Batch of 4 targets.
Target 1
Amino acid sequence: KVTLIAGVTADLTSRVKAGELVNHVARQVGGKGGGRPDMAQAGGTDPAGLPAALASVTAWVEQRL
């Protein structure tokens, strides 16, 4: 199993929401999650997908900044 936690500083939550970020990664590892704009959790069932999912975070965040 995969457990994910995302945190976003208060000054960026208007552009980057932790729940959306954690869901972006969780979908790639067979899961889902949610939470507040500043902190969110998710889980998944496909640990093999984790390296690629984590590698996609930088581009996802850059698109929103």
Target 2
Amino acid sequence: MSEQLSNARLVKRLLFTVVAMFAFGFAMVPLYDVMCDALGINGKTSGTAYQQESEHIDDSRTLRVQFLATNAEGMSWSFGPDADELSLHPGETHEMLFRASNPTDQPMVAQAIPSVAPSKAAAYFHKTECFCFTQQVLQPGETVMMPVRFIVDPALPKDVKHLTLAYTLFDVTDRMPEKLALSAVQAN
């Protein structure tokens, strides 16, 4: 009887461990976001949550914003910004267009991942609209212009005079079969 009781306890402990590991996996994403926000790492931007407290534009400062676009390994799209950089005053709303082309003979789904450098400036770079918020589906030979609208907060530290907004484009076609099916239905 004691061996059965011992086995039952072992099974309960193992089940608890499995459930705890599963829960920890789900907790990793919010924990990662909190750590990035607290430590100012990974160039994460605040996305659409930014609400400008005032319509203040700091005309006394001019910033240079550089735009970079790269493809992850295995991504065959042509991808890049309309301009390499622009000058702006903190508080102004700006837009940059990125051109993406699918040169293959297959429909593809892509996801762009942004990064802002220097990392301490990421908390002050607010995207109000961005193609990186959703996956992009392009049919064979299709080209699209994808906007990113943003505001650099006037509270940006005075020593930061140059920002870089970089995007890496990933092929997520294999992970998004429902996106391809939906785009095929919409195309017909």
Target 3
Amino acid sequence: MIGRLRISGNYGRRATRDALRGAAIVWMAAFHFCFDLNVYGLLSPRQDFYADPFWTLQRTCIVSLFLFCAGLSQAVAFDQGQSWPRFRRRWVQIAGCALLVTLGSWWMFPRSLITFGVLHCIAVLVIVLRLTAGAGAWLWLLGLAALAVPWFVSDPWFDTRATNWIGLVTKKPITEDYVPLLPWLGVAWWGLAAGRWVLARRRGWLTGTLPRALRPLAALGRWSLTFYMLH
């Protein structure tokens, strides 16, 4: 999940997972830096971050990488036998930060405040991942189903602020960040499935030592939640 997960046993701190999360953080920071320049009129020509494919595709890739890493981290946690009290502590941190994001966006963008962005989504989906981590190969099919359902199912009932977090909306809500449970749970399920497969068959891919050039990314990835909130 986003945030620091302490590693013990055979899981070295220079893990591939941490480097992936670090890469997502750097990419996100660069994207948001450009967004801020645009908001304050310092980017020329002025960009449309909400419709221009150049920017919307980047956002999709960044969120996908974050949520894939969330699934990957839950695979590691399941493999280590992470206790529910430890899981609960991490969940409280994520949910608390999600609340702070909502409050901050309400102050900065009152007409388009964030009620279900990436941290809100992660706070919900990690519970689902925790409960389904033992599903084995079914995780691949569950992920595919979660990705596909929004293409075929939508209803105005899901368009309200109280229900749009599910994702089956007929129109996107006006908000600065919208990451609904569907279809994004599918990406996280695939991250969980990939993590379970790698740990069973190619453990060294996650636990081996990284090249020196990638170690700063891994260090950053271990503190991704802190970096996310500060930036």
Target 4
Amino acid sequence: MQHSDKLHTLNARMKAAELLDADFYLPGVFSRLGIRLGFGEATVGEVCDRSGIDASTFLTLCRIHLMQDYVPSGEEIAKLDMGVCLKYLKQSHSYYRTIGLSTLGKAISEMLAPCGEKQKKVILRFFDDYHAELEKHFAFEEEHVFPYAEALASGKEPGGDFGKVFEDDHSNIGEKIDDLRNIVMKYLPQECRDQDIQQVLLLLCFLKNDLERHTAIEERVLIPRITGDTGHGE
């Protein structure tokens, strides 16, 4: 399917296997919502029902993944199951911590094995600083933003204005990935094995794209629901 067609063809009646095949990143959406593979000829709606996931919300998350410029309408945002959205975001954090950043860190260490200690220290410190920055970002969301959104979704009136703080703090967390990628491409010594360098570059590319989709869901779904500003997509 062409990207222009994907937006219009996504629906609960399509085969889940066809949706899964539409984009390299969609398996992550399935996994983070607890939808296990091996669904045969079942439709998206059937698979979501089995997993206790609202199909419309699931499809909105998939559209944001598939279409870089897709912004849900205010009406669509108002109908979303915030429990499903928050589950996706929380499981994304878990993935970054336990798999994404860990795998990248190991690959960088292997790539730097032939380097001198000074070169290793500079690059590893850059990665460690970025890792710490992401952890700080995730911790703020988990301690303040997500509970705030959960309280709103349950009909409570949470104190504070975390939606505004979150919006102001939500900088482009992909910029330092570009910096690290440039270091890898431009300044590594010839002793580093090309296959190790390519592995690191691929992992950096995947992490950046995944984080961009994660950020898009927060900015286009979570923030509008917290702030009540759902008119931007109409």
